[in-house]
């Protein structure tokens, strides 16, 4: 069963990353929204493509991480999840942006896809916008790759997919607000106080997750199996 607390953290990361999202994708979202009803279909297709890309990539990473059936590996993933939550909080608050290092790794993947994505820009229909969204979901963005790294710690394809779907939903308010010209909503999502509140919640969740993992490390690695063995 997907961890709803981690999915909530992924959603919060997408929601509070409004400024970053607008800087990376806002121009495309605004350009696709110009015009009549056909452009609205293009905008919707683009966002659907982005979220599908996030969800599918998360599922692949979750499947890969969950393929290792070792207690120590599962324990390591739990520690990693806690650390990433703390780093995400620091990233959102702009106190320490260590997660931007992930962008350098992602740039290697993005280079061959960039030309493909640019090809979709010339297509004036929703299928082109959908393809653009699918490509753009893999761009070298610290926000996206931070969420993907956290999703991988779920240890399952379903759990990671749910987390990345939640992340994609979190990015929608800022992106749709840009498309519709809703400046007030965009300004709210960019407010320092709002971002700090989410950042503190993420850091607190990460610290608590690390504490719980440490406190139950023995049981998670094999203590529970030993207790069951002694009962027999």
Element-level helix/strand string: HHHHHHHHHHH
Spatial extent as radius of gyration: 19 Å
Uncertain regions spanning at least 5 consecutive residues: 223-232
Number of strands: 0
What is the residue-averaged pLDDT?
A: 79
Q: In percent, how helical is the residue content?
A: over 70%
Strand content: under 5%
- Regarding quaternary structure, how should these chains be classified? single chain
Query: Total domains, how many?
Result: 1
Describe the biggest sheet? none
Structural class: mainly alpha
What does this structure look like?
This protein has 232 residues and is mostly helical. The protein has one domain (4-219). It has helices spanning 4-16, 18-33, 37-66, 71-92, 101-121, 126-136, 142-152, 157-180, 183-190, 192-215, 217-231. Helix 7 packs antiparallel against helix 8. The longest helix is centred in the first third of the chain and has 30 residues, at 37-66.
